[in-house]
Design brief:
Length: 298
């Protein structure tokens, strides 16, 4: 079984806020004619904050029952019909049957993501023989496998991540880290490769890490959620988001502002769509997914 990194502690207060809302909405006392709020899931990593801020702090508070979970767990909950919609690693669209995506919304990067990194002890990628994967995001793990197989022409041994990140690097040549732990990881005397940057170097395209996905059998209320408008409200409140994460991540405001404005993008434009299409084709080529199904939007 894959294990996620236990160092994901940087957004405890936002996670607690999401969970309190989830608990308060799980069994609301409603008139018979009213539906319960749709259950949706998303990570509280900074790279997802503009997409969920409207639901946790903005005009959509109370409209959904938001469950906080790492990206891979969001995919599992959606696949098991435990939630009606979730912000899910992009690769899972090809694995989960009968799901749709929210139009024009994503977590992607056109250049460097900053929070999806391969940390290595070797002076070059060619010297990497054993890599520990953080399976919090299966998209990033699959992307790294594609980079080695398709672009570098060899494949290291893959292992799972243990609790202590620096201890991992004593036993492996490399370590894949995603999300807030990647932003705060101490990189002293280590070589760091940004996976979105590696993808851009080899393909000339942007990369999509996550998408809002909705079950085809979801309630009308769930399918009516305007994830694009929620994103727009979150981006309008970026300074408030930065203030919140400045306290949690202990990073300077200019770093957080640049991350949200320059590293991460939240709209699925033509460049990102082309990158996503190529990613799916290469995932099939290398046996990571059995087939490529076309994207269907709500």
């Amino acid at each position: 079984m894959w294990h996620t990194l236990s160092c994901r502690t940087s957004v405890d207060r936002l996670a607690s806020s999401c969970k309190k809302k989830a608990r308060s909405n799980e069994e609301p006392i409603l008139p018979n004619h009213q539906e319960k709020p749709p259950r949706i899931a998303a990570s509280s990593y900074l790279n997802a904050a503009p997409l969920i801020w409207s639901f946790t702090h903005g005009s959509r508070v109370g409209q959904v029952n938001l469950i906080d979970a790492v990206p891979s767990q969001c995919g599992e909950m959606l696949a098991r019909a435990q939630v009606e919609a979730a912000l899910v690693p992009a690769i899972e669209y090809q694995r989960i049957p009968e799901v749709l995506i929210a139009a024009d919304v994503c977590v992607g990067s056109r250049q460097k993501a900053g929070s999806v990194i391969l940390v290595v002890r070797s002076p070059t990628l060619r010297g990497v023989r054993r890599v520990a994967l953080d399976q919090s995001s299966r998209t990033s793990a699959a992307l790294l496998q594609i980079i080695f197989r398709e672009f570098l022409g060899f494949e290291p041994e893959w292992t799972t991540a243990a609790p202590d990140l620096h201890e991992i690097l004593e036993e492996n040549d490399g370590l894949l880290i995603i999300g807030d732990p990647a932003l705060t990881f101490k990189r002293n005397n280590l070589l760091v490769f940004d996976l979105a940057d590696l993808w851009r170097q080899h393909t000339g395209l942007g990369f999509v890490f996550a998408l809002w996905m909705i079950r085809e059998g979801a309630s009308a209320r769930a399918q009516a959620i305007d994830f694009a408008a929620a994103r727009d409200e979150g981006l309008e409140q970026s300074e408030e988001i930065i203030s919140f994460y400045e306290r949690q991540l202990k990073l300077p405001r200019p770093v957080l502002r640049a991350y949200l404005a320059e590293n991460i993008c939240f709209s699925l434009d033509d460049d990102l769509q082309a990158g996503l299409d190529l990613y799916y084709r290469l995932a099939k080529k290398h046996g990571i997914i059995p087939e490529v199904k076309p994207l269907k939007t709500v």
